[in-house]
Amino acid sequence: MSTLDGLLDQMRAGLAELTEAGDARRHFHATYLRTTEAVAAEIARGGFADGPWVAHWDLVFAQLYLDALTADRQARPVPGPWLVAFGAARDRPGLPPLRHVLFGLNAHINYDLPQALVGAIGRDEFADPLRLGLRRADHEHLDSVLQARVGAEDAELAAVSRVTLADRLLRPANQAASRRFLAEARAKVWRNAVVLDRARTAGAPAYGEALEELERRCEQRVLDLTRPGPVLLRLASRGFGVLLPDA
Q1: Which of the residues 10, 106, 127, 215 has an alpha carbon 20 to 30 A from that of 64?
Q2: By C-alpha distance, which of 14, 39, 19, 224 is closest to 116?
Q3: What pTM did the predictor assign?
């Protein structure tokens, strides 16, 4: 997989397999597929400062999720945040689709995205304020692409969920909360990527320790989301993202 078209083909095939199997992971996978399609469209229309770089970054980002999904389906070890998210899909498939989407989003954004940024931004670029500023601008513009998808994704999930009157009444508030959570998480992701880069500069042992700490914190956050109760209220009180301590 070396192009966004190739990634999208792979993800569509994966969604068909998950749907055929009745696997609850299909809910996050479908949301992620539609989001990736939106990012590809934004690149095609020239919406990013450096479209080729964003495409590369998106491939690095997606591969982390796809590798975890493949490993789990083959009964191989997966990172802690994905272990919790995939475990919930396997053990509690009857949860509302939104819950499974939130588990996957939390694992992918909080754990995978800082790693993808470090993987796509070289150490020399992190040391170059001008170049790093361009990368951060594209990172922030990606947030606007995701924000624009919130209403459409809400409709997609409503189509595969049992929607109550309370759900319909709360929909505007829930969409506003989702946009706020995404913005909050993305700001923390950037800070965590900076911490990971500092650890990378310090050497492999330091980077390994920082990544282990990120995994621990992200796993705990996804686990917290799996607990009974109103998940959006929990997110409102505790936040969506996690923060690594400054190195």
Answers
A1: 127
A2: 39
A3: 0.88
